[in-house]
């Protein structure tokens, strides 16, 4: 027995040694084999590695493979020994080798010559998908990234799992992915891989079942699951029809004789089961969104005083092939209230000052969300406790609310404060401005080196950088590196450029009218200084924040407009004084349809404007004041009567001094969530009638309106407020008013510069010159205008002298993507236009309501589509139109300020 054991042990030793190293001839080599008797497997021998070679490689580098083995020339190794087995393990561990052998090709004394004989694993040469579209295929290839990688089972399994998860996240919970491998005959040692994707139908949520909520209703709980919504259902009529069909005389008798009272809870359950109008919310189930919703639900309970609220369990179960039910089990716990609140560690400010900032009183409902907001950062008011310190340099300030006693439903809090040292800003830098010059960015930064740290100035800087429009507002991030030892902080603003130049290009053949089209270019980051530096041309010189606008518009021979403007926002380079210059020329013609080459009349406006605006610091530095001088020539060629003038041909001149005072503190120029934009604009001409006593109402219109005499007042105010506790939902409230007046009765009201109301508010659709175009959705373009309709061109001025307009919008942000920002809106608005102050009645307004959508693309600006319904008649402006205005569609381009 003992002898048999020894023989078996020797055989095992021999087998292990031969697994480590083989003597003989490689299938890749013609060298003579080594005599096997030269090695004794039972007695390891020491050798010096004289040479190492590798064969069988297709794509791998020989030097790299030898290096990976860990064997080196001149190394002393034992054969058999750990060096050989270790080399084999290391090569196998790389996961790129299919088979490996270490052969001895020659032994000379103490020198040994080694050969690594390898077989590489095949690689993925091509990746194909079936059952997906082109966009999904591109995203999936970026997601798995296996082309060129070694074929391994774990790589295939991970890719298959990631592809399935990609569609599960989109609501396709039943997605199946099959993997098909084929040898690629076009490349050596390569494999083609095909993923066959069967998404099946999208799985919707049939019902969300909530258990354990006693104090807060199912409706409110489900409302907080913002991304986990039930599928719309309208089974009420089907349910009633089924009940009627299945009713028998006996069941009807029992229902009448033995009827039981129906509770409110039973009615709610019945309506919830058969009636759910949820058409504007996605009802797909996404696990990640559901986890976020559960966190939001607990936070909601905490904000209502339920400090111990928790979700005990949640699950999903199949309702049908394409629907599931979601179950949420809650434990609400007790509702708590604040009792005693004390402060410790505060030396700079007294308790009462901190208590006033906290704005939480004894007896208030315990609200974790409000507590954290009032302690650390309140984005709406900015007057939290932390701002009291951090606006005064105490960057390291920290306040920690500790529950020191919980008794019954009352909680005592102790606010433990660390004030820290007063911090000075050491350096301020910017990063990521690849197109925009440093000085353009740095001049908007309010927090500067040498100043005490100020959180409000930091927030203001982020706002100012967002307002430039050159950077993605969602990605502007201050990177602060504080140093406690020397009480300093270094600040770097991380920016990401986004394209903001805009192009407007459209064209076509308008038949009788001829060529119809528009070419518009707006360069929002133009640079006159860099015209000679061709490295800054993209495609024109950029980087200095100047705005160059060029526009040509034509509607055949009936209308043409040419304009150019240039604005330097920091004229002089030291202060935000904006200098602007613009020139425009417009022509409007009346064409004889019987003789297209013959003009019945034309109206031309040529004008130039020079303006200067600057920021002011009083009442605060959100205010802007601007002044401009404008000269315009109105040239009538058989066109004067259209505006109510007595002469068909002639010329009028306008020289105005324009002033605007505005305050703008909105947080985002594309999709504002917070703040306001208020402006008062005035225009004054010289009092020509005072200077020329020979002109009055009795004078011919050619003399009376040779130099237009008027004053105009325009007031616009817009307010933005987030609602529903979300940054996506915003209410926009706007009011607009305009007043046109004269300096007295001697000349009277001018027929130009009046207000035209109704429709989309876009000028180029109507080619209206010398007028203020104001939109009012739900009504046709320009219909709410005195002197319009059948009276147009009959000697009465076209346009009103006073208008009012009020708008309320509820907006929802669908996509904040800077390359395509999308939001939906619902609106209600009202307005009117009066031809004289005697008729003015601010309560007599034309009302409308509707819905719309907006998409902002940097290359094209803001595009909009609205559907509005006008509730009132416009018979006082056009007696041919009786009854409500009805439904109207409106398409808009660009921001509509009024």
UniProtKB/TrEMBL annotation:
Q: Which positions fall inside the POTRA domain?
A: 336-420, 423-498
InterPro entries with a match to the protein in the record: Bac_surfAg_D15 (IPR000184), BamA/TamA_POTRA (IPR010827), D15-like (IPR039910), OM_assembly_BamA (IPR023707), POTRA (IPR034746)
- GO terms under biological process: membrane assembly
Major localization listed first in the record, in broad terms? membrane
Q: Where in the cell is it found?
A: Membrane
Q: What's a GO cellular component annotated to this UniProt protein? A: outer membrane
Supply the Pfam families for this chain.
Omp85 (PF01103), POTRA (PF07244)
Keyword Membrane present in the record's keywords: the answer is yes
Indicate yes or no for the key word Membrane.
yes
Q: Which Gene3D superfamilies match?
A: membrane protein fhac, membrane protein fhac: a member of the omp85/tpsb transporter family
The UniProt keyword set, sorted, is: Cell outer membrane, Membrane, Repeat, Signal, Transmembrane, Transmembrane beta strand
Which PANTHER family does the UniProt record give? SORTING AND ASSEMBLY MACHINERY SAMM50 PROTEIN FAMILY MEMBER, TRANSLOCATION AND ASSEMBLY MODULE SUBUNIT TAMA
Any idea what this protein is called? Outer membrane protein insertion porin family
Origin species, per record, is Mongoliibacter ruber
